[in-house]
Write a structure and sequence with these properties.
It is built from 1 helix and 8 strands; from the N terminus they run H-E-E-E-E-E-E-E-E. 20% of the residues are buried. The chain folds into 2 domains: 34 residues; 124 residues, Porin. 13% of the residues lie in helices and 61% in strands. With 166 residues, it is mainly β. An 8-stranded antiparallel β-barrel has the order 1-2-3-4-5-6-7-8.
C-alpha cells in the first residue's frame, strides 16, 4: 500500500510540475516566443558548388550551380558578378533544399591562369537570409575556378570555407 501511495504522490508531483511549466510558458501567457533572444550557434561552414556562368553584358556575369554545404546539405546557388578591371563584386544567394536562402557578398581578385581559365580568390561575408537562416552571419574564404567554354560563358567550380552563426 505504501508503494502505491508513493507512486500516486510522485505522479501528482510530476503533473503539477508539468502544469506549472506549461502555464508559465511564453505561449500560454499569450506572448510570442520571439520575444526572447534567439539562441545562436557558430559552426564551420563549407560548401562546394559546380555550375555554369554566362556573360550577360560586358560588365556582368550571372552564374548558377548545385552543390553541398555543411551544415546545410544540398544547395543551389545563383550569383551575379559585376566586373571592374580584374576584380569582381559577387552577390550570391544559396538556397537550401527546403527553400530557405542564405545571402552572401564577396570581394576578391581574378587572375587568368590561361587564355580560357580564371581563378577568383577572395573572402565572403554572410549578410542574412530567409527562414531559419534569417539572422545568419559569418565570413570565410572563397575560391572559384572558371573555364571559358565559348564566347558567351562557361563552367565553374567553387569552394567556400569559413563560419556561420545562426
Amino acid at each position: 500500500m505504501t508503494s502505491r501511495r508513493s507512486l500516486k504522490i510522485l505522479t501528482a508531483s510530476v503533473l503539477i510540475l508539468l502544469a506549472l511549466a506549461i502555464g508559465s510558458s511564453p505561449m500560454a501567457l499569450g506572448s510570442s516566443p520571439m520575444a526572447f533572444a534567439p539562441h545562436t550557434h557558430t559552426t564551420h561552414f563549407r560548401a562546394t558548388v559546380v555550375g555554369t556562368f554566362a556573360f550577360t553584358s560586358s560588365s556582368t556575369i550571372t552564374a548558377s550551380g548545385k552543390g553541398t554545404a555543411s551544415p546545410l546539405g544540398r544547395i543551389t546557388v545563383t550569383a551575379t558578378v559585376s566586373l571592374t578591371s580584374n576584380s569582381g563584386t559577387p552577390s550570391v544567394t544559396i538556397t537550401t533544399a527546403n527553400g530557405d536562402e542564405l545571402f552572401l557578398t564577396a570581394a576578391g581578385t581574378a587572375t587568368f591562369t590561361s587564355s580560357t581559365t580564371a581563378v577568383f580568390s577572395g573572402t565572403y561575408t554572410i549578410t542574412g537570409g530567409t527562414g531559419h537562416l534569417a539572422h545568419a552571419a559569418g565570413h570565410g574564404n572563397l575560391h572559384v575556378t572558371a573555364d571559358l567554354t565559348g564566347s558567351s560563358g562557361g563552367k565553374f567550380t567553387a569552394a567556400l570555407s569559413g563560419s556561420i552563426t545562426r
